């Protein structure tokens, strides 16, 4: 298996036009980005101020005052600019661009003479730069600003912010490295690594790639930089505001810095940090043709997605450290499954697809996108889940402290928060996740079935493609070739895992057979302009079981339909949901209803409900033999991404099964 | 329903002689008490020192040094002396008594001139007495010393410690009260209330009863004493070692001080504090004929035992604050169910039985005793569970921080700990829980079926009773009347809830019918010496279901046999236990095996095991339709109190049910 060296960002252009996805991208453009701008400027009534813009004004010398917000507050500015960049690329907006230009001007003014840029250390701890990589997110913030600059440059062609971050990266390159006199360090929160790869892509500057490689390779080596750094600070902790015991190397698993990354086999520690790092590792494996790193990526991918991933594409089983726990430990009710972690998993999948086109990466990408990620956002774009549970009992969320982190309703988005801007930047750049093009092999891969106009530059020449999709409601996508090169090229259509390997393919109305290679139906031929390809993966509701080692789901099933995971809500099925079971052989009846936001397919199934009538409130336990049998009921399941949009109530993805 | 005013501690004498219980009481006498003495003297190798004896030596001026251990370290000395008292009562031991006498001498030397006694405030914060009732356990420690003194006095007739605590209580009475100039306060951890009732019992001194009443009545009134006290300390917290925000009255629910006790309807807050308080409330309701307090006790009993109690008699659903959460929230895996809380529940049940003989109190008492309490102790008496889970996955206990508090193996008992000495004092005074005698009504109630010799003083005269019991393995108890008065009196035998109301009664070999009053078979007659009563409540293994609102147990059943709850262990049934289900109509085959410690009845049942063979490690989810059916297996269940005595592994009380 060769390592593909073709990036997707060459000269390819993709623009989404899709009935399901347009409302999300419009929401980001019309609501999330403007709302976040107000938040960054401390203009949301009754919300804690963000201080993010103000910090830059103070750092730039335009205003007097104290630093406000978290140590990583700058990253909110960066994520907003990044989302704006993506948005402008697909949807020009002169006024928004002017606002962004002014903000970029401000950012530039806050930059030090030597290139350094960070308002926390500029305002609050001048002279303390690079003394607390472990906790202070300095390179993390740098990474986000780099991502913003790249996105903004690619959208507008304007170099201002790009120049700022290049100067900053050049400075960072003088501070960090294995050469004598440089810091052999790396950030406590990975992010800059993947950002430097992007900066290398748009600038062509090898130094940025090498710096990313340095950070990745240095991580977890002995002596452990983060531990030694803590010692040099005398154990002082930024977060605890006091001296703490020096952490052990093993505790650096939280930051994935307990062993060198190439030796890591299992996803551990803070899940967002982990997947951001894996993303950069996959980038580097591709760009440097590093087989050892590729093998590490595959191992970490396998462990993350096959042993530690919820069916919704959520990762992170515990809120203690927002972290992975261990294989098959996937509790539904004390879950974490942070939105940002699923977004990072999508980044990782995207980079693995650039490395090697295997449908399992796209399967996971789609799973995380259609369930965990879009489920995190309310239909008004102003309320978010940070934790995305698979089972909710609102009273327990309120009254059992072990479940306080699991919210039954999406929370109002206040100034300082990671997930909403991350959703914004993912959704506004979703066009980057639909296809990859292998120029040398003359193949266009279709990973996601999202309506879009696309152009690819293959070695054979330019390809124009118009995708129309009925996903997620129907298994149908139609591709019109709007431009074709003279020679042959291949269209590789993902055969989704949910199709059970069954799909129909028509070319110009005639059914054709196809070969499946690594999960893609590959059709290679000389195409003519106007050729129509119709792709019909089987899309039917089905019951899904979990691996028996996943104890939380024993004896249960989930309903899935195409890429969507379904759930039961109290609004449709009453309470307690635990009293319900689903008949294993039930017919699953799907129908579209306009009653759910945006219109959606709901599923009805045959179920059984335990009888409650014979129970007295004062009888907690009694002989099973006294119970009457369960009674037949109709179960109604709704797409997981729509849960919690009606009155607060119980929700569950996994449903007990019964035999008849 | 009249309130019985007959205490059980009048002139009644009960001595246990029982095949099941003797090993436990011997373990306490021969191992736990001597081992704890070594611990209190810091002589356990590799264990953290207790400092408890040393603190008294320092406070007495016999040694120089700093205070060691927790602020409530004195209570460990008290609990040990109390257990010694009970032990000496049933089993004289001159050497142990000499040791105890010397310790009591030391305690007396540490007492201040004015009666005050607390080594923490004597050594570490002199002058700060009574300034942090909320956190510093001053009256709590006093209460335990009072309980010790009462037990030691009743066992030995020696007044030394009794005089010490009377002097202390007299002093406390000058400090606390509603009179002008006195502190209108109470302890953050209830305990002294029930202790003062005992002190009143042995001394006849009304002031002690009134002081207990003051503490109970003052609690939760406005302005809230604990909140005001925090304000006076400027918010300084003993535990946090810094100034914290002043807590709200609502937060005082942790200490059951959020509203006056008479207005409390539901068990809230720290569960041990709660049941210690309810115990004193029941005492006071009985002794002062207080109907309002009785009604509060009944409400709190009902809520605790019918909405917030595990089937094992455990209470406290969350380790956050070792606390109750809310009705029907009884998670099996993130449980707390502290040993001390179940012991406190037994105290409460015992006091309710003194108030009114209703079998439901004894049912709960027996449930907590035979399951949660004795299950907490290892067979060597040196290892204990503080948390008593109903479901354990050892790997999750180790690797998921939300379950670190749930241990898969009993922990070595170190110097400072509450549960082991509490188990010791309960088991060494178990004779006090078997019977109550209503002298005026001339009735002897048998609550527990534990072999014992007993003497009661009824108005009709002296009754001598010899109970022999085959519990918990067989439903058979035999009573020989060894002494009888001239007139009639009633023997009231508990008809246990687990019998399903079915029992056989024989008198002198002849079956007789009986009336059931409040759950007791009451036989009133003029008895002759040598009369034999045989009582055979039906004792059969059965499956038990939980109330449908207890979501954690939906679709599951527990195996119970008489007073014992059973569980599945990995040692007998493999892993994961979640793959197993029990056939709803299964025969439950019981047999005695010598292979379990002490010999025990195990139960075999028909079950089903999900098939694992067709699952690949890399397939976390797949269509339910692809699964093969579950295969028949034999399930082996062992008594819960014996779990975790073999190699560490999974355990579960609640088992999924299947239909065939």
Automatic annotation (TrEMBL), chains A, B:
Keyword Hydrolase annotated: yes
Presence of the UniProt keyword Cytoplasm in the record: no
Occurrences of domain Non-reducing end beta-L-arabinofuranosidase-like GH127 C-terminal (ranges): 542-656
Non-reducing end beta-L-arabinofuranosidase-like GH127 catalytic domain: residues covered: 14-431
Pfam families reported for this sequence: Beta-AFase-like_GH127_cat, Glyco_hydro127C, Glyco_hydro127M
GO MF terms held by the record: hydrolase activity
Domain Non-reducing end beta-L-arabinofuranosidase-like GH127 middle, residue spans: 443-535
UniProt keywords, alphabetically: Hydrolase
Name under which the protein is recorded: Glycoside hydrolase family 127 protein
Lineage: Bacteria, Bacillati, Bacillota, Bacilli, Bacillales
